[in-house]
Amino acid sequence: MEESHYLNCKSRAQNYNPPVDLRLLDYVSIYDNNLMCAICRCPFVDPVVLSECDHVFCRDCIRQSWNSNTSYTPLGPRGDCPTCRTPAKLGPRSATSKILVNLVDELVVHCPKRDDGCKAEVRRCEVQDHVNIYCGYTVIECTDDDCTLPVRRKDAAQGCLHFGVSCLSCHKELQKWKLEAHWRSECADRRVHCDMCKSSVFYRDLEAHRKEACPAMSVSCPGKALGCTSRSKRGHAELHAKSCTFAKLAPVLLKQQERLDEQEAAQKEMSRKLEVLEGGFQNMQGILYPPGVETSQRSADNSLTPSLQERLFGSGTAESTTPTGTAAGYDWTESAVDEDAVSPAETMHTAFSSATSPRQRAAPLPPGPRPADLPEPFSSDFDIASPTGFPPPATNGGPYASPLHHLLSMHESLRDEMTRVSSALSELDGRHSMQILNENLRTREEISYLAAQTAGLQRQVHWLTSSALQRQQGRSPTPGASSSGAGGAMMDAGAGAGVEAAVGAVSTAATALRGAARMVNVGGNGSGSGTGTGMRRGTSEEGRTKL
Amino acid sequence: MTAPLPKRIIKETERLQTEPVPGISAQPHDDNARYFDVMVQGPDGSCYEGGVFSLELFLPDDYPMTPPRIRFLTRIYHPNIDRLGRICLDVLKNNWSPALQIRTILLSIQALLGAPNPEDPLNEAVAKQWKENQGEAIKTAREWTKLYAQPKQ
Known about the structure:
The complex is a heterodimer.
Chain A: H1 2-16, E1 47-49, E2 56-58, H2 59-69, E3 78-80, E4 87-89, H3 98-106, E5 108-110, E6 121-123, H4 127-134, E7 139-141, E8 150-152, E9 164-166, E10 173-175, H5 176-185, E11 191-193, E12 200-202, H6 206-213, E13 218-220, E14 231-233, H7 234-243, H8 245-288, H9 291-302, H10 306-319, H11 323-335, H12 347-362, H13 370-373, H14 375-385, H15 403-475, H16 482-526, H17 532-546
Chain B: H1 7-18, E1 24-28, E2 35-41, E3 52-58, E4 69-72, H2 102-114, H3 124-132, H4 134-148
Antiparallel strand pairs in B: 1-2, 2-3, 3-4
Helix pairs in contact in B: 3-4
């Protein structure tokens, strides 16, 4: 019974303290890199030498390395040397010289229970013994006979510590034997040292301390965004900020940057809006001035009679006594920025002048009597329109910044009006031609109806005449009835004359109809629109009437 | 949590921080010490000069017995690196040796940038171009480096 209990305890004690992993140890001094295994990067643990290339590895490392990539071989573990790739194998006598083993065994390490508080520094070959036998922080079974719970070796003398207590700082419930470890590493209210400034703070405040208060923490200059790359400890940050131009300028410049960004965003939005508006405006322009219309208007304007031009210019000069007229004259002759702008009094005149002005610009001395008549009024315009004598915009009553603006706006309004008028004109034109076409059709139908009737009459008359003539010819050879025949001839002659007259009347009627038809056709052709199909139909109608 | 981080990985990470290889930096993730963000500068004198390429590196559980997994995150025109950034390099596959480390592998990758090997291609199209018209291929590689591998300001 005693024995079994002992064995039981022993096995559990083993579980509390697993064998020390030599690769996880912290070394007190810096060791030579030549003592380091190339695979685990730790000082050799049970080193072996590969006889083929003399490279040394830990036994476990080289076995593991070869096992992972080669299958089982009956001649023992073999593979390539990890360092030089020489094919090698692990023989029974691969152990290295004693000197290497001694070198790594002599290395001094910290006790693996260092985190728990053990300050022992022992040679590596003795660390397992230290943990198993001497280390006060190793966990063993409670010495109390009735208790089998674990306890640290150094506390074992104090009797059984397996009773509940509560932490004085954080009031957490725990067992007495764990209290020290709790204070050391768990309790939120324990005092810890900040790594940076070595001051003592509560563990729960450590994060905040590091972030905000720790004077040894390095912080970047407030002018970092402007390009100052200096980082200084928080304690010296003030000094730096005083000397750094970036830090001084930072608040102002950052604010400006912010505003700049805002304005840029606003500008972007505006430009997008403008784009949309421009697109819309161009669409509208495309609708108002289709490319064909402009040229036809120009060509029509070029055919304006000189008299009309003269009248227009005369009106322009007549108005030049009024301030607006003067402005117009100035614009026409001198500035040439906005030649189309004239007094808004007469829309039609404006329209014509806007069309004629380019000609004027191209040829300073236009043909016709104008050059002889007009120099006087134009020169007077020059005088009035000279910059000193220019009437102030207030006289126009408009809220415009300058006369040029006024003229421009006037020009715009006139242009609009002009387009309205031109559209109305084209509409009227269309309606008119439509009406004429309708009228034509009706008349033509009537004419064709009449023509058909006339043709019928003609045919009847022809038939009657031919039958009468046949009858006359058939009767004239009979001698017996000369008198009666003469009488009949007389009668026939009279009848024939009547028929002749009737035929003549019918043919005159037909010619008259033809003439009417031609007239209608001419009217149709002259009605402006004169579409090709209409014309063709007209001629075919004519042909039918002729037939 | 799985097994504690092997001492070797901790040591390698520390050494990468304390004695960085020129032109190479590797930074472990805060939440996963086996996952590294790597930056590799294009070697001087190569067509990747001036570029900064970012890679991801993952150390599997049985590292160092198995090679780390590495992938280019930056696009690169190279016959041994495919569109997904996978690298065709012998030491990352069959020729891995546990004696190799993160730093040596990254140096190998930097060397691969300096000496593309179109005879053992991973990206067939690039390798073809490289073999048939090397001047044009190098020009493209330079352009891609300018386009994709510019260091962040």
